[in-house]
Amino acid sequence: MYIQEIDKVMDLLATVREAIDYTRKNVEYVSKYISECIEALNAIKIYLNENAPECNTVSIDDTIRIMNKAVESEGNALSGLLEQIDKSIVKIKENILSQVKVRWKALFLPYKASMWTSLESIWLEAMADPNCDAKVVVIPYNDLGIYEEREKFNYEGDKFPDYVPIIHYNDYDIAKEQPEMIFIHNPYDDFNSVTRVPEKYYSVNLKPYTKCLVYSPYFTIGRYYPGKGDFQYTMPGVYNADKIIVQSEYVKKIFEEFNHPSDKLLAVGSPKVDAIINMNKKSAEIPIEWREKISGKKIFLLNTHLYYFVRYNEKAIKNHKEILDTFLRRKDCALIWRPHPLMKTMLRNKYDNYIDFIERMEYAIENSDNCVIDTTGNYSIAFRCSDALISTYSSLVNEYMITGKPVLIFQRRPAQTDAELFPVNYLYNYYRYGAGSMTYNQFIDMVISGDDPLREERMKMLSNAFLNFDGTAGEKAYKKIVEEICIKK
Q1: What is the pLDDT of residues 238-286, one digit of tens each?
Q2: Do both 311 and 383 map to the same domain?
Q3: Among 381, 363, 361, which residue's Cα sits nearest to residue 301?
Q4: Exposed, middle or buried: residue 455 (CB in 10 Å: 0-12, 13-18, 19+)?
Q5: 3-state secondary structure of 454
Q6: Domain for residue 277, yes or no?
Q7: How far apart are CA 231 and CA 219, in angstroms?
Q8: CA gap 217, 140 in Å, rounded
């Protein structure tokens, strides 16, 4: 039986006990209320016989016999029988909880294929659990950045890995199924200005249909400045979630500063780290459409953060132009550019003055001999193919560092006092600006020569920044949630 079904039986038994207690105080209603209690116990017995044949219902029969006797009794005899009935109901409850084979449903609700890594390792644990029915329902979303497509639903069910069985959102009724666990990576509800899922998938509307709504962030937290980026901790889904998966005890304390109770926060690490660790175990294979341009060269991945152009304006253009020009002049290396999947959508909405540069950059890359654009839903291909990352500050930097490969950040190096207080210490990366900076050519030469003097300290730092750095964060999260929903009443 599923936990939700057991809950209903337990609730009915609790009602029977309340009725017996009421009868004890109002004996004139003994016939009416005992008859209704007998009817309820018979319904429970039939339900158990149909749905949990492994459960012995003898204790129910015994209790019904005592109830029938109580209807014909009065005075002290009746009081004694009512007390006996109350104890018998407790025994029925104990028998059910000890004998019934407990099952549960876990529903995963991703909407962006690129964000699936925040849920995948939890899903793998749920799939491997014989007591769990795990389902993945990819939900649609509106692209708010493109005016003519605001009313059109986008659906990425076909972009997920082949080994993930996808159920179409029209074929799964959450209100009917009422899964014991629901996992989300989108906490925004109606506060997202770039993409938005249908209202029925808002966290506030999912919460009534599950025992445990779990938010697993689609990003990892690298830098933290109080007062900046507070939205990450205050969105509706963060508050509506029954459990939030956090990467470390330090990040847990940050969430607590926003009035999230300690017992709501599962400090187990990040499923996104699991994804990188598991990905590293697989051999890299360059996609056929990229091979002619980048095979046989040292490959660099260029990551552009969602808001980089908005925040840095002309400087963002200058940096991207310098990076691209550097690679176009070199024949001993190759570039994979992976802009944030939502960047152009967001720029079209409010900052279309940058679109011209983006499109010229795309044209130059497409017509180059050693550069490609990565538009796949999953960054694992680019992670595995590349030898180093060039990036702005981004949660992608945190994840790329886990591969052990070097990273050059083309923003200013943080002050040591700040960096040492970040959830992830970025001082173990290389920088284009600030003390000890290097040019793009110098970074390329370093990678080609096989040098990475910061690697050992970087990996040591990461093992402290993420709990369960061995790739078991999803496993630990799943087991804790199962324990939570299986607490016996």
Answers
A1: 999 999 999 999 999 999 999 999 999 999 999 999 999 998 888 778 8
A2: yes
A3: 381
A4: middle
A5: coil
A6: no
A7: 13
A8: 19
